[in-house]
Write a structure and sequence with these properties.
- The chain is mainly α.
- 39% of the residues lie in helices and 4% in strands.
- It starts with a strand and ends in a 20-residue tail after the last helix.
- The relative contact order is 0.14.
- The N terminus is likely disordered.
Length: 522
C-alpha cells in the first residue's frame, strides 16, 4: 500500500509565502518612518504575496484543484467544516493595508506626493475588496488606526463597497489633478512601482477596471452614485497588471506562486498535496469543451494529465510530480527549471493582480447588465478568450511561446456549436451571463482563482449538477462535503481566531460556512 503522509489541514489551506519581499514594516501597530518611495514597492509586492494565498484558497473551493495521492488527513479542506484556523492567512491583507495607510497618512497635504497618495489609495481599495469578498463584514471605517484603536467596529459590506468606489474616484481625480498641476509631483519610478513602472495611464486603467469589478459584484446590492458609474477616459486594462519587484531564484525573492507550487529557491519540491480537479479539466479535454492549446500551456503531461475529484481519497489517486502538474515543462530539476508557459512560468515571472482577460470579461458582463453601454459584447467576450491564451502563452520575460491569437481562433472554431464559446448562440440574458462567467472561470484557473470562486457564489456559474450519482465532470463539490446546501458547497470561510481573541466584542457572531452569505451572493 502506498505510504500515507498525514498533513495538517491548516497547513494545507494557508499555502502562501511567509516572507514579504522588501518588507520594512514588521509591526502593523507601529508606524514606520520610511518614505512613500520605500513603502510603496514593498506594499505592492506584499499584495502579490497575499494574492498567492487567495489563489490557493479559491482554487480549492471552486474546482480548480483536488487532493492528490500520497497524502491523507485533509480534514476541513474536503469537508468544508471550516473553523477559525482554516484559511486564516487571508486576514493578513490587513498587514499590507497598514502600509498603504502609512503612505496616505504621510502624504496628506503634500502636493508633491499626490501620485503616491493616489496609488496607495487604489491598492488600499483592492485589498479591502479582497477582504469583503472573503469575510463580508470587516473593520473598515475604524480600521488601520494602529495603537489608537485596537478594537475597530465591523462595517456593513455594502457600505464598504460604496466607499471603495468613492475612493477610486478620489484617486483618479488626484492623479489627473497632479498631472495637470504646475506644482511638480514626484513621479513613481521602476524602483518604487513594481507593477506599472510609474505609468500613470496604466494606473488609471487599473483603477477603472477595479471599480468596474466593484460595480459588477455590487450590482443590485449597492446604491452607487452617478460619479461612481463614470470612468476615466484612459479606459480599462488591455494588458495584464503584473507585479514583479525583481523576482529571482533566491531565498524570499521568488515569485510566490512558483515558490508554493513549483520549487523552493534551493530546488526542493513545492507543495505536492494537490492536483488538477476533474471538473475543470472537462473544459479542456473534450468532455465539455475542447481546448488543447491552453491545456498544453497550463498542465504537465497534457492531454493525459491525471485529475481527481475533491474528497476522493484512495491509494489509486495519482501523486503529484516534482514541480506540480501546473508546471508544464519537461525540465523537472528545481535548481534550473523555469522559463515556461502557464501559471507558474518560473521563479522570475510576474504575479497577476488583474489580467486583461478579467478586464474584458468584466466589461462584457457590465454591458449585458447595463452597467456599461455602447460596447460590443461579443467582441469583448472573444477578446477575453484571446487575452487568456495570451497570458498563458507568455514566458517569464513576457515573450510568447506559440501563437495565442491563432490558437484562440482555432478554439472558437472547434467549439462553435457551444453557446459557452460561440456567443451568437447565447440569445437570452442568462445564457450570455453563463457564457461570460464560464469563460472567465476558465481564464482564472490558477491565475486568480479567488475571482472564479467569487463569481460562482455570485452567479452560480459555471453550472454544476449535484443529483445523486453526479460525476466529477458534473460537479466540483467534495465527495466528503458536510454542506447542507443544494450545491453541497460552502458559502464562505470564518473569521480567524485572532479576531475572536482581540476583537470579540465587535466580531460578528454565528457565522456558518454553509449558510452565511457574502452580501452579493446567491
Amino acid at each position: 500500500m502506498k505510504k500515507q503522509i498525514i498533513i495538517v489541514s491548516a497547513a494545507v489551506t494557508l499555502l502562501t509565502s511567509c516572507s514579504k519581499f522588501l518588507d520594512i514594516n514588521q509591526n502593523p501597530n507601529e508606524a514606520t518612518s520610511a518614505t512613500p518611495q520605500l513603502i510603496l514597492p514593498q506594499a505592492i509586492t506584499g499584495t502579490a504575496s497575499q494574492l498567492n494565498g487567495y489563489n490557493s484558497s479559491g482554487a480549492q473551493m471552486v474546482g480548480y484543484m483536488a487532493n492528490a495521492g500520497g497524502y491523507g488527513g485533509f480534514g476541513s479542506a474536503v469537508t468544508y467544516s471550516f473553523t477559525s484556523s482554516d484559511h486564516a492567512a487571508r486576514w493578513n491583507v490587513f498587514d499590507v493595508l497598514e502600509d498603504y495607510q502609512q503612505i496616505l497618512d504621510n502624504t496628506t497635504g503634500d502636493a508633491s506626493m499626490r501620485l503616491y497618495s493616489a496609488t496607495a489609495r487604489i491598492m488600499k481599495v483592492h485589498g479591502f475588496q479582497l477582504l469583503v469578498d472573503q469575510y463580508n463584514s470587516v473593520p473598515y471605517s475604524e480600521a488601520l488606526k494602529g495603537g489608537k484603536n485596537l478594537s475597530p467596529k465591523y462595517d456593513d459590506p455594502a457600505v464598504i463597497y460604496k466607499s471603495l468606489a468613492d475612493e477610486i474616484d478620489m484617486a483618479i481625480d488626484t492623479i489627473n489633478a497632479a498631472l495637470a498641476s504646475s506644482v511638480a509631483a514626484t513621479p513613481l519610478t521602476t524602483a518604487s512601482d513594481p507593477m506599472f513602472g510609474g505609468n500613470m495611464t496604466s494606473w488609471k486603467k487599473f483603477a477603472n477596471t477595479l471599480k468596474l469589478r466593484i460595480l459588477v459584484n455590487g450590482n443590485g446590492k449597492v446604491t452607487f452614485s452617478s460619479k461612481n458609474k463614470t470612468f476615466d477616459a484612459a479606459g480599462f486594462l488591455t494588458t495584464d497588471a503584473l507585479v514583479n519587484p525583481g523576482y529571482t531564484r533566491q531565498s524570499g525573492k521568488q515569485n510566490p506562486k512558483w515558490d508554493t507550487w513549483g520549487f523552493t529557491y534551493t530546488g526542493s519540491d513545492g507543495n505536492k498535496a494537490w492536483m488538477p480537479n476533474t471538473f475543470v479539466m472537462a473544459f479542456y479535454n473534450g468532455s465539455k469543451l475542447t481546448d488543447p492549446g491552453r491545456s498544453k500551456a497550463l498542465y504537465y503531461q497534457s492531454p493525459t494529465t491525471p485529475t481527481n475529484r475533491l474528497g476522493y481519497e484512495s491509494t489509486s489517486v495519482t501523486s503529484s510530480p516534482s514541480g506540480s502538474f501546473w508546471y508544464p515543462s519537461s525540465n523537472r530539476t528545481g535548481a534550473t527549471s523555469g522559463n515556461a508557459t502557464g501559471v507558474l512560468k518560473g521563479p522570475d515571472a510576474g504575479m497577476p493582480v488583474i489580467t486583461a482577460a478579467e478586464s474584458y470579461f468584466l466589461q462584457a458582463e457590465a454591458n449585458v447588465r447595463g452597467i456599461l453601454t455602447g460596447g460590443n459584447v461579443q467582441v469583448l467576450f472573444e477578446n477575453g478568450i484571446t487575452a487568456s491564451f495570451n497570458y498563458l502563452y507568455q514566458l517569464p520575460d513576457k515573450s510568447l511561446s506559440g501563437s495565442p491569437s491563432s490558437d484562440a481562433s482555432a478554439y472558437l472554431t472547434a467549439n462553435n456549436t457551444s453557446p459557452l464559446v460561440n456567443f451568437s448562440l447565447a440569445t437570452t440574458t442568462e445564457q450570455k451571463i453563463e457564457a461570460i462567467i464560464t469563460q472567465k472561470y476558465i481564464a482564472m484557473n490558477m491565475v486568480n482563482s479567488e475571482v472564479g470562486w467569487n463569481d460562482y457564489r455570485r452567479t452560480h456559474y459555471p453550472t454544476i449538477i449535484n443529483t445523486a450519482g453526479a460525476t466529477g465532470t458534473q460537479t466540483f463539490a467534495s465527495t466528503q462535503s458536510k454542506s447542507t446546501r443544494p450545491d453541497h458547497l460552502p458559502t464562505r470561510i470564518v473569521y480567524p481566531s485572532s479576531e475572536g481573541a482581540y476583537n470579540s466584542t465587535n466580531m460578528p457572531k454565528g457565522i456558518d460556512p454553509f449558510s452565511s452569505l457574502i452580501f452579493w451572493a446567491l
